[in-house]
Design brief:
The chain is 31% helix and 20% strand. About 16% of the residues have low confidence. The strands form two sheets. A four-stranded antiparallel beta sheet has the order 1-2-8-3, sandwiched between helices. A four-stranded antiparallel beta sheet has the order 5-4-6-7, with helices on one face. With 200 residues, the chain is an alpha+beta fold.
């Protein structure tokens, strides 16, 4: 039995967020997550009373229990705004900062890719983290071979943009794109440290 793609995404997000916790104690953005209850040990506030997962007796039951716990994790993460979602695309941050290349690599290692808004809803989902941490974030958009013209990392032309007034303005000198705390975009050099936001 295989995990559904949505559950696979949630599992990747969970592992991406794991470093946020030190010695099993949540920190920062994850301070409200009921880890003890999620991992099956005791009851935390917010746990649904009299609702326990099925016992794992066979391989199929183990997969079913894992799917149950992953879907439960998704609900808690969404409720506590540790992840955001728009039309099936999940966005998450570990709260750390890195330059553009390190951000791309960190997201790839987590099983996702750097956050790339393709519409206003996705832009708002990323903006939540930018506002929460009060810092800028790189987006999965880079300058093409034509200075001043930008595209997705896979070379696809942009079908949605949200440039700040008079941007892009780097005239070929600024190859990456960052999101400001108002949700607008700016072209920027790729060597600055910005908030890591990934999509799954």
């Amino acid at each position: 039995m295989m995990l559904s793609p949505q559950l696979h995404k949630i599992l990747a997000v969970a592992f991406f967020l794991l470093p946020f916790c030190a010695q099993g104690k949540p920190a920062g953005l994850l301070s409200r997550f009921p880890f003890k209850a999620f991992l099956g040990g005791g009851r935390d506030e917010g746990q649904i009373p009299d609702f326990t997962p099925p016992a794992a007796t066979e391989n199929g039951d183990i997969i079913h229990q894992l799917e149950y716990r992953i879907s439960r994790l998704e609900g808690v993460l969404l409720l506590n705004k540790m992840i955001t979602e728009f039309r099936g695309k999940i966005f998450a941050t570990n709260g750390k900062r890195a330059d553009f290349d390190a951000t791309v690599e960190k997201c790839r290692e987590a099983g996702g890719s750097i956050a790339t808004p393709r519409n206003p809803g996705e832009n708002d989902a990323i903006l939540y983290f930018v506002k929460y941490f009060n810092t800028y974030a790189y987006l999965g958009i880079k300058q093409s071979l034509i200075p001043g013209k930008f595209q997705l990392l896979n070379g696809t032309p942009l079908s949605y943009t949200n440039w700040y007034s008079n941007e892009p303005s780097g005239q070929g000198e600024e190859e990456c794109v960052e999101m400001y705390t108002d949700g607008t975009w700016n072209d920027k050099r790729c060597n600055n440290n910005r908030l890591i936001v990934c999509q799954f």
